[in-house]
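Q: I'm building a small set of examples for a reading group on sequence design. Run inverse folding on the following structure and report the sequence directly after it, with nothing in between.
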């Protein structure tokens, strides 16, 4: 059984790897959000029997979700901010729900549903393992003391 600095270094390596995986998952989701926006924009202007308000609300939901992923990605990349972990966990819980909805045949293909579920699991568990480092916490604590 390891004790002391070796054990702490292993946790840091795990955390750094989890941050990298989380950032990669968020990048995939941000790119996927951009790819999803084009068909949604086309659907807003397509002649259908849906009301314009319903089509615009779907577009607004997609834009807000994409912006949320991008802000979380920025927080994870720039500062490894603790709020980015909480945001990523929430995003991935909701993505799991969306993926299971797709798998039930509500919309999309089973391949899309499985991709969403797998990304949700990968993002969720990497966000759980990605922890702020002790030096990050001490630095932000010291910054608040000098104010």
């Amino acid at each position: 059984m390891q004790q002391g600095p070796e054990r702490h270094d292993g946790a840091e390596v795990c955390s750094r790897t989890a941050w990298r995986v989380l950032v990669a998952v968020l990048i995939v989701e941000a790119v996927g959000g951009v790819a999803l926006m084009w068909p949604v924009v086309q659907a807003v202007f397509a002649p259908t029997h849906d009301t314009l308000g319903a089509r615009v609300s779907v577009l607004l939901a997609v834009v807000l979700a994409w912006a949320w992923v991008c802000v979380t990605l920025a927080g994870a990349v720039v500062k490894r901010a603790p709020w980015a972990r909480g945001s990523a966990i929430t995003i991935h819980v909701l993505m799991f729900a969306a993926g299971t909805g797709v798998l039930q045949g509500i919309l999309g293909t089973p391949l899309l549903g499985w991709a969403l579920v797998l990304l949700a699991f990968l993002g969720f568990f990497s966000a759980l393992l990605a922890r702020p480092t002790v030096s990050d916490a001490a630095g932000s604590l010291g910054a608040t003391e000098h104010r």
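Residues 11 and 129 are 9 Å apart (CA to CA).
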